[in-house]
UniProtKB/TrEMBL annotation:
Gene3D superfamilies: Periplasmic binding protein-like II. The lineage of its organism: Bacteria, Pseudomonadati, Pseudomonadota, Gammaproteobacteria, Enterobacterales. Belongs to the CmpA/NrtA family. PROSITE patterns: TAT. This is Nitrate transporter component. It is found in: Endomembrane system. Pfam families: NMT1_2 (PF13379). CDD domains: PBP2_NrtA_CpmA_like. Keywords: Cell inner membrane, Cell membrane, Membrane, Plasmid, Signal, Transport. It comes from the Bacteria.
Amino acid sequence: MSKPIFPLSRRQFLTGSALLGGSYLVPGLMNSVWAAGSDAPEKTNIRVGFIPLTDCAPVVMAAVKGFDKKYGITLTPTKEASWAAVRDKLTSGELDAAHVLYGMIYGLQLGVAGPQHDMANLMTLNQNGQAITLSNQLKEAGVTTAEGLKKTIAAQPAGSYTFAHTFPTSTHAMWLYYWLANAGIDPFADVRTVVVPPPQMVMNMKIGNMSGYCVGEPWNQRAISDNIGFTAETTQNIWPDHPEKILGTRAAWVNENPNSARALTAAVLEAARWIDASDDNRRETAQVIASRAYLNTKPETIEGRMLGHYDNGLGKRWQDAHPMRFFNDGQVNYPWLSDGMWFLTQQKRWGLLKQEPDYLAVAKQVNRIDIYTQAASAAGSISLPQSGMRSSTLIDGKVWDGSNPAEYAASFALKAGGQS
């Protein structure tokens, strides 16, 4: 259980066991301390890229609600066209940081998502809230489940059906592959997969370029609203409370601007806390991010699923037990080592990584628990877990807790090269 600990100097806090996940609850050092003198941000104007998705909300609201100013920075959200563009601008330094795919940051760290760069994950922006959409053509053919999809795919030549995700090492590629494989569909041998930027998913399905896709909201709800598809699976049903987007940057940027990195993380962390504080705040957020500057879609397309209200387009409606979350007392935002390691296991499973990585060492290098701990202190009253590992049970019944990643990666019957 978290408890306040006094007295605790800043140096003691930063070098103590909290760095490794101690259970400190810090009511807050004076925020002015974190924006003046030797703690002043090295860079005060910070460009943060984002893709038009509901889960960019903490980055946008940090700027809109002025949380950035509290920490002596000006956060400028910059709208990008694709995840490849985010990658290129982030690694070139054109962007200081970004709302970015967890798997992209790890892929760059290991040189499988583009040229190798040492990267940093400052915090997780959200959990849950993505989905797999199938076309109405499949619905009309009686296909509404993964099992039905397997039968339909098996009746046609391999590669007859095309599915889209957002980037080769993306979260969405991993959710899609996991879901297909759980139904006995080989995502590399049985179907064709393509990369499509999130805002282009709906139009590409409408003109018949694919039978299904995995993407973040609001582009699954938009397919239902436009009457071109339905939700076959939510990603929170694949992995309840799974990690999704992160606040990512280059390791060199953090090393050059540690105070700015802390200030940026604290501002976005406060925005995430504000969004989750009430349904009214979520509704206000939906109104803001719906504008042309951000998602450019109707607020009602965003708001329902942001509140956990789901309609799958097949007549089923429910209040989801694991809706998109942005804070949850920091449980969402803490850069869990096991979360990062899971993406490495899937990259190894599907042959993106040819060699077994040192899972824990990579996670400790990328996930900047030190910066996050400082930001949590600055923001105040945010608990830190006792360990960097957490345990989850996925849709196939497998338990992931980070304890034996190599064994976990090898345990799947369906992986690169087909059946083991």
